[in-house]
Structures are given as structure tokens and as C-alpha cells.
Amino acid sequence: MTGLASVALVLTVGLGGYIAYSASVSDDAATESMGSNQPNVRATATKAPSPTPEPTPTVTPVPPFASQSFRIAIDRIGVDAPVVPEGMDEQQVPIVPLNAYDVAWYNFTAQPGTPGNAVFAGHNTWSGEAVFHDLDQLQPGDTVRLRGENDGVELVYRVTDSFTVLEDDPNAVQVMLPSLLDIVTIITCDGTRYYTGDSTYGHDYTERRVVRAVRENVHEQPLG
Hints:
CATH topology: Sortase, Chain: A
Distance between the termini: 42 Å
CATH class: Mainly Beta
Strand content: 35-45%
Radius of gyration: 16 Å
Shape: globular
Oligomer: single chain
């Protein structure tokens, strides 16, 4: 972006539901941090944490990681799922997978493995339990791994935060802002499930679960 150009974001996650807010993020705001890296597990905040300064990145960037197929693995909750790059639809709404077990990486957020905020989203339920049904069980120190399927490179992230925001909280868009660190943000639905009558999804949730993790290192995995 240049000057004071802004991006309007309306995030679609969970059981096809919408985080029912939009916000304009200026270039000035985009240079701020995404929130504290201190543990804040299972907080039921009604808004996202306020931005705070971040330290200078100390993790070396890796080559373009998302140019290959990759998976996300979270051992504590038994997740090992394919990642699907997604953008926005014609209404500028981020696209979510139309199945229970794919995970979306939003290609308008940071490239995994580089300083920035790589944002992922997946369903909590989809005709039963879906890929991030147990995301609320993650604790500080748990690992999130992104594994390249071509070169065997594995990016290892350490969970630092887990919190909820209300679906209509206008401040919640801050979880998608850039970061000076190499972090991942994972979003799914949480709270109370209610019927919407939508022809595709049918239900939504009153909150969104947000998990933040900071990259720790890179592993070279043998292929085959």
C-alpha cells in the first residue's frame, strides 16, 4: 500500500459464519504489533488485545515457503491437514474451505517463514467435528508446525496466546494486522452455535477463537 491507502477486512471463519465487522487498516496501523506474546489462555475478551511494540526479529527468513503444497500439524489436538491458499471473493470477504478438514491460508497476509503475520482459518464444525474443533485446548508452549510437501522443510511455531473475540467486535480485525515477527494466527468459531438459515452453512457462532504462535526454528526433514 502507499500513502494512507487502507484495506477493508471482513473475515469469514468457522461454520461458514462471518466475523460480522469491517474495519479500515491504514499504513500507520499496519506497522504496529499484533499484541502481546505473553500467555492469555482461554480469556473471554470482547475485543482483541491492544497492539504493543515488538522486539526486532531474530529468526532468519526462509525461501518462499508457500510456493509449494504444505500442511499444518498441531500434535496436541491431532491436526494434520492440507493448507489451501485462499484470497477474497467479489465482496472482499475472505474465502473459507467448503469442507471440514482443509485449512485456509490467506494469501493477502504474510508468507509463512518470513517476518509478518500469516493468517489461517478453518471450521470448528461441519456436519460434525471439523479440523479446528479442539483449537481451544491449546496451551502456551504447544507447537504448530507447517511442513512443505516438496522439500521437507518444517517451520516450527510455539503457541503464545489463545483468546476469543465476539463476532461483531469492530476491534477484532487487529488480529490480522502485520507483525515484525514471524507469527501465525489461527482462527475458528467458538461460543454459542445458532441457526442462521444460510443455504450453504446453516449455522454460525457468537465468538471466534484466535490462537497466536511465534516461529521458533526451521527443521530440514528427509523426503521419502
